[in-house]
Design goal:
3-stranded antiparallel beta sheet, 10 strands, Nucleoside Triphosphate Pyrophosphohydrolase, homodimer, 4-stranded mixed beta sheet, alpha+beta
């Protein structure tokens, strides 16, 4: 797992923000040459593929400033410092959708942009949902709950309303695992 | 697609780099309050799910400084200015693996980290592969070619050698589409 390792020679912190930091590292390549790596630090996140009793996938629509439009995604959120991913998954599911889950299981963890960011998303599947609240999103968080069939989710991937990697993965996974 | 739109009030450029830029925008939320959005600009990328005639998926192993380890991914690369994604997909496939493809088709495009980055990956499927060279990776690019069966790819997702969103999506997609 250290094949072609790049050792850090110098590291310069460019920016420390609310959610991300940016640093630029000078690294030594396997051939001895030096190059620069621009690296975004992110706390990591969780996302939840939640199935309702009537076999719909729970989604949220929200505006994504980076894309300058709103998209439909599975519920997700950033890890708090020292927070266990499973705890975070339950918290974010309830905050964004008002659902609690009887059964929560880890599906996959993956890096979103390994070329420039250390963000890892821990993906969980949630079943046995109960509506315990109307959802209590954080102040200044604007999301709208949508529950979609597998067929509607696939159409949304085609028309671009679903447009992010974790949700695209989730739709394929749900179809493979839950349509058997 | 503009639901909950956040209008930019001010935009500050923090960093302009080789691959990414960073800006911080002050935006107006739907309730009229202001907040900050930290936004990474990226040129976008392509990735290729390539199937060999003996039904293996073409992968490359490379070191990812952001993760401080090497991982196994489908071939991918950044878009050059004004480059069409399909042209880029053919170029990156040949550069990284030495393969050209008789048939190339668009699978899906998705944002990798919509919370903080505008990077979009255009994913293609390649079939009818011919080895035309040994691969001519760019100078100072270190990648190792690996060809894996669908079962080996799934094991690599379990043990974490495959660890990024585009490749995780690709493995599920290949199994769903090419194992029928």
């Amino acid at each position: 797992m250290k094949k072609f390792e790049e050792k850090t020679v110098r590291s310069e912190r460019i920016y420390e923000g609310k959610i991300i930091n940016l640093k630029v590292d000078d690294v030594t390549l396997p051939n001895g040459k030096e190059t620069k790596r621009e690296l975004v630090e992110h706390p990591g996140a969780v996302a939840v593929i939640a199935l309702t009793d009537d076999r719909r996938i729970v989604m949220v629509e929200q505006y994504r400033k980076a894309l300058e439009r709103s998209i439909v995604e599975i519920p997700a959120g950033k890890l708090e410092p020292d927070e266990k991913p499973e705890i975070c998954a339950r918290r974010e599911l309830e905050e964004e959708t008002g659902y609690t889950a009887e059964k929560l299981s880890h599906v996959q963890s993956f890096s979103t942009s390994p070329g420039f960011a250390d963000e890892v998303i821990h993906l969980y599947a949630a079943e046995g949902l109960s509506k315990t609240s109307e959802g209590a999103t954080e102040e200044d968080e604007f999301v709208e709950l949508i529950e979609v069939t597998f067929e509607e989710a696939e159409k949304m991937m085609e028309d671009g309303r679903i447009y992010d990697a974790k949700t695209a993965f989730a739709v394929l996974w749900a179809k493979a695992e839950w349509s058997k």
